[in-house]
Amino acid sequence: MIVRSMRLALLLVLLVVLQTTVFPHVRIAGVVPDLGLVAAVAIAVRYGPELGAGFGFAAGLAADVFLQTPLGLGALAFGLTAFLVGVMQTRLVSPAWWMRPAVAVGAGIVSGLLFIGLGAVVGQHQLVAVHSLRIVGFAAIYDGVVALVLFPMAAAVAKPRDLAGVQVARYGAS
Amino acid sequence: MADPRSNRRRTILILLVLASITFITLDTRGGDKGIGGRIRNTARDAFAPVQSGVDDLLSPIGDWWDGVTRAGDIKDENRRLRRELQAARGRDHAARAALKENAALKQTANLPFALGIPAVDAQIILGSPGNFESTVGLNKGTDDGVGIDMAVVSGDGLIGRVSQVSRRRSTVLLLSDRDSGVSVRDAQTGALGVMNGSPDAPQQTLDAQDAKPVMKRGDVLVTVGSEAGPFPPDVPVGRIVSVTSRPGDLSARVVVALYADGNRTEFVRVLKFPTP
């Protein structure tokens, strides 16, 4: 349990470093992907909404540290999105490969809209603009692209092991 | 009997929402000096050495990517600049002579503007990690004398103002950010306006406040400046690309090409204004 938490913490640190140093240089159509969100969604799909929401909250909070918007806004958007995806996705036992990017794109749109909507509620009125919808759309597509790499990576890092070292059955599968 | 898994999920959801609302409230109420601000500054300082190391390592890759993705823009810009250069050569000889004299006088300092204002030289080391803001990160913080709301300039002109600062890092809100606003003056006609940021940098728009005197295409915009605000007077901001107004309108829509683009600048100067 502790080892798994440490692995997730290291993944979080790695994603923050990539998000703040590498991806600002590799913007496509002026946007960057939300690495923390994609990883949280991957974990939610694989291991359930509880762990996904927890990782999403932590990843969103870490992202908030480097943004102008209030601390906690990204945490709420990422956490809620991962929770929702986890609740819906645990019904799928063996999704096709293309489901990963598709889920990430959907999650990117939901998270972006939550970020804008919740931001407007807490006084971030500059977020409410047509331009923001364009950003949400492009960023969601970028999320889908990085999901091809990040989904298996995050799922592997979050993989629990029982005492015998045997991989625990997938969440929700019987 | 209630499903334990449902109960657990509900508890997690409630905790998530409550924790987020707590953080948002603490941050918005406390500002930079509150608990939220302290958490933010501590975390930024903790990540600073790692970010610097990774950024140094990967900046050549970033430069290559920048060249790949902006090749079309660069060609367009090159064509546009050639046209503008030709046009500029043919006009305002007298005015340019006066400007040349003025520039020669001001070149005794490193910057041709903001003379006599104490400043901190800094390097832009980070771009914006998010999608909804136009910011850059500097390698200097409060330890070096950088403070909130200080104006940031490059050799070309105004870039923005410091919006967040920790001990070793600071964040500059660029002029193109939606939250950004600066009062400007037409250096030729004296007309005033307020330029609010829009994310389509480097072209910005502003509403000219006065119908007369008017702003004209090609005119230079400089900061109005005041002791109460972050920007000193007469710092170059941009050049007017177009002015459109309909009969009867009290204000005109002015499109401005910024002189300085924070996303393509490496070294900047943080102005300690008003001078202590």
Protein architecture, described:
The complex is a heterodimer of chains A (174) and B (276). With 174 residues, chain A is an all-alpha fold. Chain A has one domain: Arp2/3 complex 21 kDa subunit ARPC3 (Orthogonal Bundle), CATH 1.10.1760. In chain A, 68% of the residues lie in helices and 0% in strands. Chain A is globular. Mean pLDDT of chain A is 88; it is low at 166-174. Chain B has 276 residues and is an alpha+beta fold. Among the domains of chain B are: 10-66, no CATH class; 181-262, Thrombin, subunit H.
Summarize the structure.
The complex is a heterodimer of chains A (about 170) and B (about 280). Chain A is mostly helical and about 170 residues long.
Features:
heterodimer, A: 174 residues, mainly alpha, Arp2/3 complex 21 kDa subunit ARPC3, 68% helix, B: 276 residues, alpha+beta, Thrombin, subunit H, 6-stranded antiparallel beta barrel
Assembly category: heterodimer
Query: Span from first to last CA of chain A?
Result: 22 Å
Counted by DSSP, the helix tally of chain A is 6
Q: In CATH terms, what is the architecture of the domain at 181-262 in chain B?
A: Beta Barrel
Q: What is the structural class of chain A?
A: mainly alpha
Largest sheet of chain A: none
CATH class of the domain at 181-262 in chain B: Mainly Beta
The overall pLDDT of chain B, averaged over residues, is: 81
Fraction of residues in helix of chain B? 25-40%
CATH topology of chain A: Arp2/3 complex 21 kDa subunit ARPC3
Physical arrangement of strands within the biggest beta sheet of chain B: 1-2-5-4-3-12
Strand fraction band of chain B?
Answer: 25-35%
SSE string of chain A, helix = H, strand = E? HHHHHH
Would you report the number of β strands of chain B? 12
- Major pleated sheet of chain B: 6 strands, antiparallel, barrel
Give helix and strand order of chain B, one letter per element, not per position: HHHHEEEEEEEEEEEE
**Major protein interface:** A-B, 54 and 53 residues
Name the CATH superfamily classification of the domain at 181-262 in chain B: Rod shape-determining protein MreC, domain 2
